[in-house]
Amino acid sequence: ALNAAPFNYSDPQQLLAFTSLNLVISEVSSKFNVSVANVFQAFATASAPYGGDTCEAGLLLKLANGTCDTHPNSTGQSLLASTVVGATPKK
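The structure corresponding to this sequence follows.
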């Protein structure tokens, strides 16, 4: 499993919502002995130089108007994949 990342880590409402969601993901995964890849932390680290904005960090699909979609682009997808591959399996 993997947890979720907010679109902007500097937005307190997004941060609270995604932190709460990730807590549920962690609790449910734990009950089934499933590892959770920490996408939240990976995207936080990658977007930190951009004030926590995952769009500005180049992790999301750009729209014609210059804003971003909520889905990852190829860079974001690569980060997701490497985070999943690097997750420690539960035993």
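The chain has a mean pLDDT of 96.
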